Amino acid sequence: MCGSSDSDSHDGYLTSDYNSSNSLFSLNNGYSYSSASLDRATFDCQDSDLLGNHKHPMLSTEVPRFISNDALHSPITLNYKRDNDDVTYTNAKVNKFMIVLIGLPATGKSTISSHLIQCLKNNPLTNSLRCKVFNAGKIRRQISCATISKPLLLANTSSEDLFNPKNTDKKEAYARITLQKLFHEINNDDCDVGIFDATNSTIERRRFIFEEVCSFNTDELSTFNLVPIVLQISCFNRDFIKYNIHNKSFNEDYLDKPYELAIKDFAKRLKHYYSQFTPFSMDEFNQIHQYINQHEEIDASLFFFNVINVGIVEPHSLNHSHYPSTCGRQIRDTIMVVENFINHYSQMFGFEYIESVKLFFEKFEDNHEETLAALDSVVNDEFFNDLQELIENNGFS
């Protein structure tokens, strides 16, 4: 595999030593990286039913239609004003940003992160920021292809299945390599905003990530201070999920695989992730913030945003921001742009996506009817009922 962690385990969490060079990503160790029909009904569900208190809705076949009037402005054109713009951040290190994506496969994480980069680049407040996505799946494919010179081999047994819960350690190794690369490029001043694109679907994984952020920020050899932003992407609409699974069948893992085989394999992968997923919550936000404050011995910045069903469900009650008293304009301006991107995502990108989904299910070009039949044979009511059962068994119904 890709190497072992120097971290220990206690109370079910991955941990690292913050005051020594033992952390997996400690700068004292240096860095190494191995190459390697949508119009069916009205959605009747409150925001608090979606994610608050660790609750999931039933996987919906319906599209919600409620957008506030103030969501009609693009964050690209808004004039931003903040109180205390002249406050100067007192930390000796220059700030950079780390966006931690959270979400199941086929929810749109990678697409939304690319849209966020586009928004940051188009806004005069943030257009100087150099942004980069660090995708754990791409790292896995690079390493796998370098090792076996082939795309993903479909598993015949649970021991061969990378995405089976029994093989969590293998997925964690790829995630750690990806996180290491992000820290390395941040510290080398190669980027200003690093987006950690992975499912990050368990409390254990997320705690480890923030432990390593603390280790980075407190390491005397680190040049910059990382400001963490949590961006949780959720999708509960069945047609959206089905469409996304269809698109996933054409990614690098399945380039040499027949369509139906790719659909079956990805559907199985998705079930594995549903069986382990724990959504990020305000309780977890508060615990992480307390943890960072204790280990960095400062009132630390921490931000939490949600995009639900491509932004057509408003997540205001789920989002939370903590600005420390010494927070300067750079952090405030950047978070302002991110916040407006979240609040206006449906107008900027979501409605266009919905039209693409409608067209996919409506048009019948050459072989398209055959494609839909193959997709429906796998991603059907039974499949979604299985996903819902996994959600309920996980304690989030």
UniProtKB/TrEMBL annotation:
A molecular function GO annotation: 6-phosphofructo-2-kinase activity
Cross-referenced Pfam families: 6PF2K
GO terms of biological process kind: fructose 2,6-bisphosphate metabolic process; fructose metabolic process
Cited Gene3D superfamilies: P-loop containing nucleotide triphosphate hydrolases
Keywords for this protein: ATP-binding, Kinase, Nucleotide-binding, Transferase
GO cellular component terms listed in the entry, alphabetical order: cytosol
Top-level taxonomic group: Eukaryota
InterPro entries: 6Pfruct_kin, 6Phosfructo_kin, P-loop_NTPase
TM region(s), chain numbering: none
Domain 6-phosphofructo-2-kinase positions: 85-324
Stated name of the protein: 6-phosphofructo-2-kinase
Organism the protein comes from: Saccharomyces pastorianus
Gene this protein is translated from: PFK27_2
